[in-house]
Amino acid sequence: MSIASQTERVIIFDTTLRDGEQSPGATLNVEEKLAIAHQLALLGVDVIEAGFAVASPGDFQAVKSIAEQVGISGGPIICSLARAIRQDIQAAAEALKPAAHSRIHTMISTSDIHLKYQLKKSRSEVLAIAEEMIAYAKSFVDDVEFSPMDASRTEREFLYQVLKVAIAAGATTINIPDTVGYCTPKEMGNLIQGIRENVPNIEQVILSVHTQNDLGLATANALAAIEYGVRQVECTINGIGERAGNAALEEIVMALQVRKPFFNPYFGRSVDSETPLTNIKTQEIYKTSSLVSQLTGMLIQPNKAIVGANAFAHESGIHQDGIIKHRETYEIMEAAAIGLPENRIVLGKHSGRNAFRTRLKELGFDLNEADLNKAFNRFKEVADKKKEISDWDLEAIARDEMQIQ
Ligand code: KIV
């Protein structure tokens, strides 16, 4: 695939099986990783970061099995993370051998705080290591991604220098990590713009971002980066990952779909172009989200955008009334778009008469006006005592009013 054709859309780099698995308690075994990888391929992600091959024998085996079984011709690129260390790169290259398309993702920290306290190396040492290890990774695979870790807190001139050297050494994707989720969307935009203006060879490669969610800005930062020319985003299913997690794949993809007219011009397209901005089959989102939640044991908060249990649920009477009259009054996307059969009208104390009557009709109760009024009053009394009213509660109320035994 040429770089030019890749830049016509956003490349979805899924790191659920690497950064996502770094969520405390989310450890997956080889079979579980394989099951998720198969589902990610069905979802249509472009790159699967399958793990960190050197991290453990289990992770090596997981990368290898995914490379064998999911990394088939025409399938996604299979990637392994590797520090800019020979042993890591060798392990990644070995595990990735069976894949039809493989990528080594190598990284080294570049911010002064990481250099001083963690790496205990000078800037010139880091520059030399990055250059040497990218060339070394390139001796195994054509597709090499480089990440200057903590890029958003790296002094800009040094960052530009590292990136220039990395591209000259053979990196084909340059990924900009906001490792500690420190950026605001505007700063992210400026960071990407600065790189594009000051790294002359940057247009030869795919520019990518990896946004962490420490301030709850991961998705906003990824979208801002796209506006400034980034064409790969690193993300995870349900936004899982180290600390507060990563940008959520489903949020980025659905934002690009629902707001396509807003994003289209950034891709040189007319506002109303219908061509999708990613390769993701959005109808597979809900299934993938559930599988990841089930296998990692990471529960999804009910109000989580796109995949939370309440994302397509309506409780307030005003909203329910609107939805019954026309779905788009209170919904910007259809539940079916992510693979859910339908939205959900939740009956509770905020619900109105229209939603109540509609649900009773669906349950087979066609009450006359007087009975309906009495039933509705009774329903409100019950709703004050319970968080959610079940169909059984409704049936009991309707039967009472209709005096059916
Ligand atoms: O958060 C981070 O900086 C990373 C890099 C390896 C991309 O996970």
Automatic annotation (TrEMBL):
The protein's name in its UniProt record: 2-isopropylmalate synthase
User: Gene encoding this polypeptide?
Assistant: leuA
Look up and give the organism this protein is from. Answer: Komarekiella delphini-convector SJRDD-AB1
Q: What is its EC number?
A: 2.3.3.13
Catalytic activity as recorded in UniProt: acetyl-CoA + 2-oxoglutarate + H2O = (2R)-homocitrate + CoA + H(+); 3-methyl-2-oxobutanoate + acetyl-CoA + H2O = (2S)-2-isopropylmalate + CoA + H(+)
The major lineage groups are:
Bacteria, Bacillati, Cyanobacteriota, Cyanophyceae, Nostocales
What UniProt keywords apply to this chain's record, in alphabetical order? Acyltransferase, Amino-acid biosynthesis, Branched-chain amino acid biosynthesis, Cytoplasm, Leucine biosynthesis, Manganese, Metal-binding, Transferase
Report the record's Gene Ontology biological process terms: L-leucine biosynthetic process
Function of the protein? This protein is a Fe-Mo-cofactor biosynthetic component. Catalyzes the condensation of the acetyl group of acetyl-CoA with 3-methyl-2-oxobutanoate (2-ketoisovalerate) to form 3-carboxy-3-hydroxy-4-methylpentanoate (2-isopropylmalate).
User: What are this entry's molecular-function GO terms?
Assistant: 2-isopropylmalate synthase activity; acetyl-CoA C-acetyltransferase activity; homocitrate synthase activity; metal ion binding
Q: Does the keyword Heme apply?
A: no
Which Gene Ontology CC terms are recorded?
A: cytoplasm
Which residues of the full-length protein are shown here? Answer: 1 to 405 of 539
Keyword Acyltransferase part of the UniProt annotation: yes
Residue ranges annotated for the Pyruvate carboxyltransferase domain, each copy included: 10-277
How does this chain assemble?
Homodimer.
- Its pathway? Amino-acid biosynthesis; L-leucine biosynthesis; L-leucine from 3-methyl-2-oxobutanoate: step 1/4
Family recorded in the similarity comment: Belongs to the alpha-IPM synthase/homocitrate synthase family. LeuA type 1 subfamily.
